């Protein structure tokens, strides 16, 4: 017995609207980086994991992760749905394993990898400071 509140057609329509690019947290990060004068590229398909933002000159990539989908250790990320629990635990575990593989491949190739979590968007001032640190680190390294 399913506890879904939607019929299968409606559930399919709802899930089809779940985006992987152009999300609100991603747009927030883009706005903050642009405000700091940073230039970047979006979703480079030739890099492992197709990072959300790429700064080739700084050898810096950003991944913007949703806490639930990528299993962050915050309150939202550690929540597991009651319905179909085994599926969701396996799904998030696969996502985390994929994220680790992509980060390792990028690091091996000489890239600096920064993961920005959805919950970190709430404290914009702290995020801006973190971004400034990352950008200044890249300038020293050139």
Automatic annotation (TrEMBL):
InterPro entries: DNA_mismatch_endonuc_vsr (IPR004603), Restrct_endonuc-II-like (IPR011335). It comes from the Bacteria. GO terms for biological process: mismatch repair. SUPFAM superfamilies: Restriction endonuclease-like. GO terms for molecular function: endonuclease activity; hydrolase activity. Its EC number is 3.1.-.-. Keywords: DNA damage, DNA repair, Endonuclease, Hydrolase, Nuclease. NCBIfam families: vsr. Belongs to the vsr family. May nick specific sequences that contain T:G mispairs resulting from m5C-deamination. This is Very short patch repair endonuclease. The lineage of its organism: Bacteria, Pseudomonadati, Pseudomonadota, Alphaproteobacteria, Caulobacterales.
């Amino acid at each position: 017995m399913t506890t879904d509140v939607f019929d299968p057609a409606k559930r399919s329509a709802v899930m089809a609207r779940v985006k992987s690019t152009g999300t609100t947290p991603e747009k927030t990060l883009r706005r903050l980086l642009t405000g700091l004068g940073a230039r970047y590229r979006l979703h480079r398909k030739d890099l492992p994991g197709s990072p959300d933002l790429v700064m080739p000159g700084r050898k810096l990539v950003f991944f913007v992760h949703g806490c639930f989908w990528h299993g962050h250790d915050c309150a939202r990320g550690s929540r597991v749905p009651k319905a179909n629990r085994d599926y969701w635990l396996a799904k998030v575990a696969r996502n985390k394993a994929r994220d680790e593989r992509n980060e390792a491949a990028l690091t091996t190739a000489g890239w600096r990898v920064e993961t920005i979590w959805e919950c970190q968007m709430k404290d914009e001032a702290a995020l801006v400071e973190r971004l400034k640190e990352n950008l200044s680190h890249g300038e020293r390294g050139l």
